[in-house]
Write a structure and sequence with these properties.
The protein is mainly α. The chain has a single domain, classed as ABC transporter involved in vitamin B12 uptake, BtuC (Orthogonal Bundle). 68% of the residues lie in helices and 7% in strands. It contains 14 helices and six strands. A two-stranded antiparallel ribbon has the order 1-6. The relative contact order is 0.19.
Length: 341
């Protein structure tokens, strides 16, 4: 009689020496950024505010598509709705800076009924459907004359403050949203929700068979991603002091999100950060070169797709050993030497 022995080893890693060091360095970086307006020029502050908005968008889209497997090209809907929520609240006596958390909450709340419509679609139909939803939001907002209609409107309630004060406070608001976004995503990915989300992305039927509530998990992440994109939208109207439907609801924002996440490394925590840094650098370097800006962006995207299919961070750290979120589950099954009676 033969007996087979199976050795089942499970390894769960939440922190590594590298991740602890990176976490400490990140904390120091945040402290430096908090004090940066005291010794940096106005242009530097404004550029970093723009970078924060790109970073927030990249992280929000990666959470939805990279971890949830829901590829959306309509997240600009929540960006635009949040921008207009800030405008609406400012017209009704709420200071624009204080309106930001309310606008973010509004984007998250609105995404709940939208999710019931969007989740009826799958795959490419889901992607196109979210784009259509964003366009519907654009058309609806453009009909509201109190918000400027199709011509848009300016955010005037910050005119009573000095320009340098507006720039600095907006910078701190952007930094706070960016840090909160990264922390929230890290906590989600370390939780049971994060594990359920990744299992749904890998195999939805298998996840459901193991007891994961697929619909609820996807809806939670969809709402969270919408709120994150809403944070970017609130920051954009504070930085630009104006909002216009065609530009605010533009599909170019989805193109930016996709570029940053795919180039940086989809489905990784650091990938969107790397992608946002690269995209921002290319913007600053090539924005004045007209059509060459788009050509080089396209060339970078094609090159990464062909030679670095996992993205920059996915290639540098394929086993997720240097990540700030190094949660890994490894199950090694091996059959020992068989013995017989």
């Amino acid at each position: 009689m033969r007996a087979a022995r199976i050795d089942l080893t499970t390894q769960v890693r939440r922190y590594t020496a590298t991740s602890r060091g990176a976490l400490a360095a990140s904390g120091v970086l945040v402290l430096v950024l908090v004090w940066l307006p005291a010794f940096a020029g106005e242009s530097t502050v404004n550029r970093l505010t723009q970078f924060f908005s790109l970073l927030i968008l990249a992280v929000g889209w990666n959470l939805l598509a990279g971890y949830g497997g829901m590829v959306s090209i309509g997240q600009q809907a929540f960006l635009g709705l949040s921008s207009y929520a800030v405008l609406y609240l400012s017209l009704h006596g709420v200071l624009a800076w204080w309106a930001v958390p309310l606008a973010i909450s509004f984007a998250g709340v609105v995404s709940v009924p939208i999710s019931f419509l969007a989740f009826r679609l799958r795959g490419s139909f889901f992607a196109i459907g979210t784009w259509v939803i964003a366009d519907v939001c654009l058309l609806v907002v453009a009909q509201v004359e109190t918000l400027g209609g199709g011509a848009g409107a300016s955010l005037n309630d910050l005119n009573n403050f000095k320009p340098i004060t507006v720039d600095d406070v907006t910078y701190w608001v952007g930094l706070a949203i960016a840090v909160a976004t990264l922390v929230a995503c890290a906590l989600v990915l370390r939780s049971r929700l994060g594990l359920a989300l990744i299992s749904i992305r890998d195999d939805e039927r298998a996840a459901e068979a193991t007891g994961v509530n697929v619909a609820r998990t996807k809806r939670i992440v969809y709402v969270l991603s919408a709120a994150i994109c809403g944070g970017a939208g609130a920051l954009l109207i504070l930085a630009n002091l104006e909002v216009q439907p065609d530009s605010t609801f533009s599909v170019q924002y989805s193109a930016f999100m996709i570029f940053m996440v795919l180039v940086g490394g989809i489905g990784t925590f650091e990938g969107p950060v790397v992608g946002a840094i690269l995209f921002f650098a290319l913007q600053q370097w090539l924005a004045a070169d007209g059509v060459w800006y788009l050509i080089i962006l396209g060339a970078v995207a094609v090159a990464v797709t062909l030679w670095l299919p996992k993205g920059i961070w996915g290639t540098v750290d394929p086993n997720n050993r240097r990540s700030l979120v190094p949660l890994r589950h490894r199950v090694d099954l091996h059959r020992a030497t068989k013995s017989s009676d």
